[in-house]
Amino acid sequence: MHPASHDLEALLSGVAAGIAPSELGELFTAAEDPFVVSLAGGMPALGGLPWERLADLARDLLLRSGPSVLQYGGARGRGDLRAGVADVVAEQGLAVDPDDVLVTAGSQQALDLVARALLDPGDTVLVEAPTYVGALGVLAAQRARIEHVALDDDGLRPDALEEALRRAARAGRIPKLLYTVPHHQNPAGVTLALERRHAVLDLAGRYGVLVLEDDPYALLGFSGPPLPSLRSLAPDLVVHTGSLSKTLAPGFRLGWVLAPEWLRSRLELLAEATVLCPSGLTQAVAAEYLATTDWRNQVERYRDQYRERRDSVLGTLDVELPEATWTRPGGGFYVWLTLPDGLDATTLAPAALAAGVAYVPGSAFFADGGGRDQLRLAYCFPPPDRLVEGIRRLGTAVRAARR
Amino acid sequence: MHPASHDLEALLSGVAAGIAPSELGELFTAAEDPFVVSLAGGMPALGGLPWERLADLARDLLLRSGPSVLQYGGARGRGDLRAGVADVVAEQGLAVDPDDVLVTAGSQQALDLVARALLDPGDTVLVEAPTYVGALGVLAAQRARIEHVALDDDGLRPDALEEALRRAARAGRIPKLLYTVPHHQNPAGVTLALERRHAVLDLAGRYGVLVLEDDPYALLGFSGPPLPSLRSLAPDLVVHTGSLSKTLAPGFRLGWVLAPEWLRSRLELLAEATVLCPSGLTQAVAAEYLATTDWRNQVERYRDQYRERRDSVLGTLDVELPEATWTRPGGGFYVWLTLPDGLDATTLAPAALAAGVAYVPGSAFFADGGGRDQLRLAYCFPPPDRLVEGIRRLGTAVRAARR
């Protein structure tokens, strides 16, 4: 009586029918081999967190206020955590009322909520070339039309942005959204220069495009404070997302979104429909940590750790891959490398893995097949000696492929 | 140069432009007054949880395996928690391989993922009359066409379901999904009888409709074990969602979905695009709790607690509101009450609140304006003496309105 499952499969929505597993899954599984140096995943190195302190905080919170910490809460998030988030974003010069913070299940959920609140199928979104793979997933789930805009060592290029906006206007489709990672971009490792920030906002304002500023790496600069956030320069025009995943730890699954009020209220309703509320337990632990621990000092230690790792990678690249080119990140987790002789990074990946190093091929960061001769090196997780070994193995694999 | 925000508001998606804050928010705020007995929110009463044990678990996990617990994880969820979920659903006779469990941020996210994976705008979904308000929110966010199917004391009525399916078929629109809460339904407090389970599945199979079985109250029956889950009776035809919110606590934000493989793989990809992964911290604590604590005994104590509260409400209703009618739940959190003389529950709510009692008006549980003379009484959170006082106040408010 029951139909075969292939009949029911026809019930899939257009979105679900169109999504496919990325090749990254296989890559990450292979990279779990302890012999392999994985430069693939953007996992923060958490060893240096104050574990005793976090453990005591969690214990005390459950003993002192368990029934409220483990209860349902408001969709907007706990007041103490929203105050903590306001402190964190103040470090990058962003003054915000805790009441205007919407706490999310990581900044990934923030991106998803913004996409759902703004995009109908076929709407155009501008993204950097390359861009964050997780943003591409969110935009694909909304069936958006994705257009890439070139970047260089100073971030998104305003001339390329203006050209993209003009071209879209001529075609009768004004983009709704410009998605950018302005500090230590994932995957390119570049930062949007100050004068370009003004130029980008000016263009967005002229064309009536909202800017989605995804800024998880703002506090991870290796030489001095972050640049002014786009949202601080044009709050009416910019939606800002952030995360505790890189400055504290991903396992809390806590991020946030700051948005103009007309949008924030909608995001909150969508968040409620999606997950009811963020976890009270992780919110309470994170809030207490931010309120009672010298978290700025912990972030400073993260910066020192990642600076040392970047230096290991850049120094070894100079020796091992002189024929390639790469970005020189001023913070964050990533180096973006262009292979010599138009070598294909996807084709090279199995040989690199066999040599004992994993990376993410550049095409993962494009919706249009770009980036074939490029790749991302994430230096955040392995210790420096392993990074050196990984880059050496990459050099070996590249030299073998060029023969 | 920047446009006014009312220009940018035109960028909202069709979904976001159409959602509006529910009136429930105001109600829940008013119900926070300590004088008011709130029968509005379905919050579990958590006082009896083993707090020392949970606190020690959390502390030990952070000390012993902090760097893995607070790291990113797989979208499917941790293996230890998937094994724990398999144990929990086994209590309701559902045999499942842990590999087939998809962990979600509460069952609310599970509902949202299923809706996104199946529904295009305008697709028809059948729901009970009344139905869970959070499901209505999820379906509205997919712009589904919602049709209600009558229920009675034995749950969803197969005759009404067949009539709805026939009517839809005549109109050329086969529903994609039937959403049901088969045990101790929210808000009606009724359970789908065993013979009706077979009848419902038979109809779903004949018409090629997938059944979404939302079953968070299955283990909270007051007299004996749960009935066979729909999924155990027809695994190819049924998507099953569950939650730790009612058997452990909501603040973990952990639920799950069990689905046919063609759907599960899509749900996992959508989950990854939405939140990357569930919280490693709450997953690890919950998994350790399920593996090392006598959680079945804790659920038994929850059952005793809620049975006593239900008895307080039913006994007091007999005395205070003899002119009304109501369901007599065999488990779960809710009594569904029909007011006498066609009194309007929404109109009555402010007077009831002034008398010191809050409830959710019945129309919240309908997408079509139904339920105006009905209301939901949640007896889960207040202690018995407060429940008695709340029902007395409700009686006073109803008598005053009938004069």
TrEMBL record, chains A, B:
Cofactor(s) required for function per UniProt: pyridoxal 5'-phosphate
Coiled-coil ranges (or none): none
SUPFAM superfamilies the record matches: PLP-dependent transferases
Pfam families: Aminotran_1_2
Keywords of the record: Aminotransferase, Pyridoxal phosphate, Transferase
GO molecular function: transaminase activity
Matches recorded under InterPro entries: Aminotransferase_I/II_large (IPR004839), Class-I_PLP-dep_aminotransf (IPR050859), PyrdxlP-dep_Trfase (IPR015424), PyrdxlP-dep_Trfase_major (IPR015421), PyrdxlP-dep_Trfase_small (IPR015422)
Keyword ATP-binding: no
Residue stretches making up the Aminotransferase class I/classII large domain: 52-385
Protein name per its UniProtKB record: PLP-dependent aminotransferase family protein
Top-level taxonomy: Bacteria, Bacillati, Actinomycetota, Actinomycetes, Kineosporiales
